[in-house]
Amino acid sequence: MGPLSPARTLRLWGPRSLGVALGVFMTIGFALQLLGGPFQRRLPGPQLRQPLAPSLRPALPSCPPRQRLVFLKTHKSGSSSVLSLLHRYGDRHGLRFALPARYQFGYPRLFQASRVKGYRPQTGGTQLPFHILCHHMRFNLKEVLQVMPSDSFFFSIVRDPAALARSAFSYYKSTSSAFRKSPSLAAFLANPRAFYRPGARGDHYARNLLWFDFGLPFPPEKRAKRGNLHPPRDPDPLQLQVFPSGAGPRAQTLNPNALIHPVSTVADHRSQISSPASFDLGSSSFIQWGLAWLDSVFDLVMVAEYFDESLVLLADALCWGLDDVVGFMHNAQAGRKQDLSTFSNTGLTAEDQQLTARARAWNNLDWALYVHFNRSLWARIEKYGQHRLQTAVAELRARREALAKHCLAGGEASDPKYITDRRFRPFQFGSAKVLGYILRSGLSPQDQEECERLATPELQYKDKLDAKQFPPTVSLPLKTSRPLSP
Ligand SMILES: Nc1ncnc2c1ncn2[C@@H]1O[C@H](COP(=O)(O)OS(=O)(=O)O)[C@@H](OP(=O)(O)O)[C@H]1O
After folding, report:
1. Distance (Å) from CA 481 to ligand 1 centroid
2. Given the CA of residue 168, which atom of ligand 1 is nearest to it?
């Protein structure tokens, strides 16, 4: 990932693939994204790696911190925890956010620049620039580039589709018609087509939600025999384990070919994609194309299962201090397995293993995305240095623990029923409680301020930033009876 290198440009836009791919994708709407204007990414300045800050004091940067950021906030993937650090960073540094009028940019419709509060396209360059665009949207590059400069740092986050499905099912149980009709996630995944109708209300939450959020197109589904429309191949659970954080590079242990068919020869490729009707949700060329396109746009894609490793890489890429990326987990649902063993098959019941395999197979585009970005993450970690990364991750966790002990009553997240201060009570939605934080009493005013920032949920923080950027205008009464004195 990273700026468009000549090699990448060639790979993406080489005459052969350009001709074939454009022809096909224009027919299915991908061109909407691709024709979004020249996406000229400037090479960032030299990124000297700086040692990460060992304390709350900000590190002295040896490179200029990057402050033009586009974060694609994908759903149910740990994105609120990332949003929290962006809110805090932007707030502390007085940066301008491109904010939605409410909390999302017209989701699930594709992002439109006109949805950004205060966006004025025709002001002859007098409009103050935005620094951070980070609230929920369905990604739409063309329109994003109306708001943010093309050399902004583009990043996002993905999560294992099995964990994401568990989270989405309980959160969107009443929002997605497919989920609503289904008694349980296991029942849904046992026969998803009994419940799922593409295009039905909220059903984008029920299948390939990451792919949807990235704004990638869905090919028309091939009509197939009743009951089982081109089912994605069931992944071999032994090959598709994702190991918990800290266990070393994992990309090699994943076998994407279990779902992404091996890249075909050029001749195969051409014959395969020459007709849109030949696309299906498991088509290798279709998936590869989408992934290559994402690689050309996004500088970093974090992985929820390796959240802390991702944070260290983020801090490094942005030339931020470690303390800029330390924060608490937000939007966690109570009573659900939060431990990372969920992502490995070890310790899972046979039933859980089956559910995991089915969820990954049903969400095959997301699984392909996940495998791809998991692999990129670990390639990046290799470059960064395993040992160096482990040291930084340990430092980050120690800082988080110290902050939790210092800021939080009980040193951890709380059931929302005990959170009486509305500023800290997270929005409750779905069938499980969403956990939040209660601040310890007796904090010094300075610590109180920092701890409040850490504990504030995303909606309240967005409101706070909104009020700061758009202070209510005080209308002074017009005193027309008295002449204005010079
Ligand atoms: N740091 C970190 N690492 C791993 N997982 C994390 C992290 N932070 C949040 N989470 C889990 O992400 C789920 C919430 O995701 P989002 O914040 O993206 O949800 S939302 O779309 O904004 O509603 C939610 O998952 P569930 O608890 O399974 O529902 C959170 O627990």
Report:
1. 59
2. 29
Phi, psi of 423 (to 5 degrees): -65, -20
Q: How far is the CA of 305 from the centre of ligand 1 (A)?
A: 10
Greater confidence (33 vs 289) lies with 289
Instruction: Report the C-alpha gap between 34 and 392 in whole angstroms.
Output: 38
Confidence band, pLDDT 50/70/90 cuts, at residue 281: low
The protein residue with its alpha carbon nearest to ligand 1, atom 2, reads: 78
Give me 462's structure tokens: 């967005």
Nearest C-alpha to atom 17 of ligand 1 is from which residue?
80
pLDDT in the model for residue 344: 57
Question: Domain segments of the chain: what residues?
Answer: 69-218+284-469
Q: Indicate the top mutation candidate among 156, 305, 329 to test ligand 1's pocket, ranked by most ligand atoms within 8 A of CB.
A: 329
**pLDDT above 60 for 441:** yes
Omega before residue 108 within 30° of 0, cis? yes
ipTM > 0.85 (yes/no): yes
Give residue-wise pLDDT tens across range 304-359: 999 999 999 999 999 999 999 999 999 999 986 644 434 556 678 999 999 999 99
69-218+284-469 belongs to CATH 3.40.1000? no
Kindly give the number of the ligand 1 atom that is closest to the alpha carbon of 305: 4
Is residue 455 within 6 Å of ligand 1 at its C-beta? no
Rounded to the nearest angstrom, the distance between the alpha carbon of 428 and the centre of ligand 1 is 14
167 lines ligand 1 (CB under 6 A): yes
Listed range (52-56, 207-211, 215-219, 437-441) with the worst mean pLDDT: 52-56
What is d(CA 412, CA 401) in angstroms, rounded to the nearest whole number?
9
In which order are the strands placed within the sheet that holds 132-133?
A: 132-133, 69-72, 153-158, 300-303
